[in-house]
Amino acid sequence: MTLRGPSFAFLRRTTVLARAEVLHVVRDRATLAQIVMLPIIQLLVLSNATTFTIRETPVWVVDRDQSTESRGLVDRLGASGYFRIEGASMSGEPANEAMLRGDATLVLTIPTDFARDITRTGSAPVHFDVNAEKGAAAGVVQSYASQIVAAYARELEMERRPRQSLVRDVPSGMQAPTTTGGHIEAVARSWYNPALNYKHFMVPGILVALVSMIGTLVTAQNIAREKEMGTIEQLNVTPITRAEFIAAKLLPFWVLALLDLALGLAVGHLVFGVPIRGSLLLLFASAGVYLVVALGIGLFISTMVETQQQAMFVTFFLLMIYLLMGGLFTPIDSMPRWVQLLSELNPIRHFATIMRRILMKGAGLDDIARPLGILALYATLILTVAIRRYRKQTA
Questions:
Q1: pLDDT tens across 311-342, in order?
Q2: Nearest alpha-carbon partner for 249 in 98, 390, 105, 121
Q3: Among 105, 172, 214, 381, which one is least packed by beta carbons within 10 Å?
Q4: Do residues 42 and 323 lie in contact, with contact meaning Cβ atoms separated by under 8 Å?
Q5: 3-state DSSP call for residue 299?
Q6: Of 360, 206, 371, 346, nearest in space to 274 by CA
Q7: What are the tens digits of pLDDT across the range 252-279?
């Protein structure tokens, strides 16, 4: 039984046009590199560059106590791997100059009588001055330093307790009371990312950004190029319908974007150890829906511009807003409330949520039903509006 009718004709003509588009991309080495190689290179570079993990932060020490205990604290900082002792002095003026030159990010000031206060009361103040011009990095530096100081304080406390028990006179047959000093010890567990590896958060976000750029930018430029060359007008006088033309233009890039996503996932898993706890089938099905949104945005942009250069500028303008408000690099929870509400209109936010839930949490369909439903709605609306505007502009 052979297929006949309008549906078969539509499928046949669309397949022929899509094959021609694939051949054009394969023969154009620059476009092929832009679609396949550059995203992988960007993933490898950006995943190492975009991280809040602090290593070898330069520290200047102002040690006014010069005791064994103060030197122990300095040694703990230097041995942690997070800090590098850049210099030391008895006064604060050299430290201020080092901070001003940028030679020091953190200044640790240990006051006089630090060891005496530790011995007598079990506590002593230390002072941190952090270069806050680096924004969020300053908070991370201060957090690391505070954790090291807290660990050193617990270590000194454990050393003090045996000495106190030797001095205390305990009657025979009685047990000495254990003094906790009123401290409350909190035990925390990190779910889904026990090692607190920031790359496990960043790599899925970078993959979303790269797939979005491919789906939107390449589509907008490709159809804008048809306008520049005048081939759209030639196609309009042929029996090929606009629906067939659009489907043939979008389908190859939809498939190539999925291939890029597969390559990126392989690199993220093998190179950066990003976990894949959920269903890959569900992940790629969600990506397929999201790419319809991205391709529809690219098609919509192509209806507003006449040249590839204009398409590139408009696309980057939109993508910058999408990326910064999509929670790829900074958590949405840390944004102002009005930005959080506005980001609901951002498709990148919803796809990034799906990616991270499936990869890191092993989420199922029920867990991503809301963001996936929003993407499906956006795909229908954006593609419909883009096609109607495209018909109006090219009629």
A1: 888 888 888 888 888 887 777 876 788 888 88
A2: 390
A3: 172
A4: no
A5: helix
A6: 360
A7: 888 888 988 999 999 999 988 889 999 9
Please give the Cα distance from 129 to 142 (Å, whole number): 9
Q: State the pTM of this model.
A: 0.72
Q: Which residues contact 367 (CB under 8 A, 6 or more apart)?
A: 357, 361
Interacting residues of 273 by C-beta distance below 8 A, sequence separation 6+: 197, 199, 200
DSSP type of residue 193: -
Count CB-CB contacts under 10 A for residue 223. Answer: 24
Q: What is the pLDDT of residue 265?
A: 93
Q: CA separation (Å) from 295 to 87, 161, 220?
A: 55, 67, 8
Which residue type is seen at 237?
Answer: V
Cβ pair 290, 241 in contact under 8 A: no
What whole-number distance in Å separates Cα of residue 274 and Cα of residue 377? 30
**Closest to 351 in 3D by CA, of 367, 330, 371:** 371
373-380 long-range contacts (CB < 8 A, ≥24 apart) are: 374/344, 374/347, 374/350, 375/286, 375/289, 375/290, 375/293, 375/347, 375/350, 375/351, 376/289, 378/293, 378/347, 379/289, 379/290, 379/292, 379/293, 379/296
Residues 104 and 59: beta-carbon distance below 8 Å? yes
**Residue 365 token pair:** 């369909």
Query: Percent of the chain, pLDDT > 90?
Result: 17
**327 φ, ψ to 5°?**
75, 20
Q: Which helix or strand (DSSP H or E) is residue 59 part of?
A: strand 57-63
Q: Which residues contact 264 (CB under 8 A, 6 or more apart)?
A: 39, 40, 43, 207, 210, 211
Token readout for 222 is: 């490709």
